Every structure is written in structure tokens, then in C-alpha cells.
Amino acid sequence: MDEREWGHATWTSLAGAGLGTAEARKAEAKRTGAARRQRSSVVGLLPVGAVEAHGPHLPLVADVIIAQAAADAALAGLGTLGFRPLVLPPLAYAAAPFAAEFPGTLSIRPATASALVTDIAIALAQQGAAAMVVVNAHLDPTHLASLRQGIAEYEAGEVAGRPPIRHAMPVVFPDVTRKPWAMRLTDEFKSGACHAGQYETSVVMAAAPELVRERTRQALPAHPVSLSSAHRDGASTFGEAGVPDAYCGDPAAATREEGVQTARVLGQIVTDAVQERLGRPGHSPREAVGGRA
């Protein structure tokens, strides 16, 4: 059985990987006679997407598919660094106010999304994981802010209803809307006209081709409206941004080959972000990335 997926593992296999609460790890070390490890080499990859409209040709969970593809693409590289990467069950619900006017979009409150990220990070830290990596593919500005807030609350160690405690486990969030990561992605992505366009459609074609409405996709005209520019100009919905069909960019130009390459790049971004923050197990980040912490 493939146990690269956290949810496919058993508790016994994860105990063997050094996971469990401090008390459980102490008991396991006593039972087996092995030295108790303070922290395992397990890195939890959290794919984050949304349930929102992605044009007339892509499924509502397109972002979840893209995030999952990016996490899967990072597994080999993280393994080479000496980590044991495991893909967590994806976080599919998010703040999605930009697309809330479309049927099917399920937008949750930003505070709810922040709390989920905080609580998942705390749970992983208590299990002794080496790190949590937020692998996000949903680019709504409100959502991105909620992720940053959730990570900040975890790092501050002050969460309502919990005793104050700062956990040692880092949370890594390579935000692909920011440099340097954004510069590695496609021209369409960098233009901001990439919601259900060539960039996203290509990845879904590679990862879940059965969910792409091909005849519809091929007939769609290009719609080069930059959502990032529209947001800066004050738009808060697709309608206000001039995106009436919940897509922008050029989905008809998408190809499976581009999707495979984009997923590979996204996976490398995850791997590089982890190495920059953590280095390799047993080495400092400074040693691993030539002086950059």
C-alpha cells in the first residue's frame, strides 16, 4: 500500500516513523527499547484549495486538484533531502468571496480558514512532525490573508481556548503569488489572467483529465483580464473584475504537457522552500542553502 498519503497510513506505521505525542513516543521507545527521538523526519504537506467556480470547463475543486498535484510532485525531492514527506488530506474549503456569486461556490469565513490552519499545525507539532508545508493553489486575496493569519497565530503560540505555548515545528508557506516563487511560473500566471485559464487548465488536464469538459474548453475564447490588477483597482468579485464566466486567460491553449511541467515546477518550489527553511535532517539550513537561512 502506498503510504505517501497521511490518511492511507495506519497509526502503527506512523509510530514507526517517530510520530505521536511526546507521551506516546516515550512509551513506544520504552516498549521497543529504542532511543526516543525528539522529532521525526516527517514533513506534512497540506494541499489547500477551494470549492469555487472555475469557468464552464473545470470542476469546482480545480484548486484542490492543482494543490494535490504540487504536493505529489514534491515527494521525490523531499525524500532526496532526507525527509519523509506525507501528503495530508487536503483542505478543500476556503474563503472564496471573489467567486461567491456563482452557483456551487462554497465560501467560508476567513477566520474559520485561519483557525483550521492553526489547529492543523498545532496537531502536527504535537505529533512530533519536522514541519508542515502549506501547498496552496487558491489565489483569492482574502484566502491568502487567512492563511498568513493562521500561520501567524500558530507561530505566536497564543490561540483562544488553549494555554499559551510556542511550538518548535516550523510552518513553511511558499506563496506562489510572491517573489521568488512566482517568477518560476508561466507567463500567463505572471500576467494575473490565470483563473481557469491556460495555467490552471493545463494542470487539471494532466492530473485529472476526466474532469475537464473538453468540447467546452476548446471553444472558449481567450479572456486576458488580470485579476491581480482588478483587485488592486478595487474589484472584489469576478463580476466587478469583468470576468462573467468565472475564467480568464486562455483555456483553449492548455495542454497536458504544460500541466505536467507546471506541476513539476510547483513541486520543486515546495522542495526548495523546505530546504531553505529546514536544510536537511541533521544539518542547519545555512549549511544546506549556501548561507541563506
What is the number of beta strands? Answer: 4
Give the averaged pLDDT, no decimals. 90
Structural class: alpha/beta
What is the CATH architecture term?
A: 3-Layer(aba) Sandwich
Radius of gyration: 20 Å
Estimated share of beta-strand residues: 5-15%
Fourth-level CATH superfamily: Creatininase
CATH class: Alpha Beta
Principal-axes geometry comes out as globular
> Distance between the terminal alpha carbons, to the nearest Å?
37 Å
CATH topology: Rossmann fold
Spans where pLDDT lies below 50 across 5 or more residues: 286-293
Please provide the ordered H/E string of secondary-structure elements.
HHEHEHEHEHHHHHHH
* Number of alpha- plus pi-helical segments: 12
Count of the domains: 1
Sheet having the most strands:
4 strands, parallel
* Lateral arrangement of strands in the main beta sheet: 2-1-3-4
Helix content: 40-55%
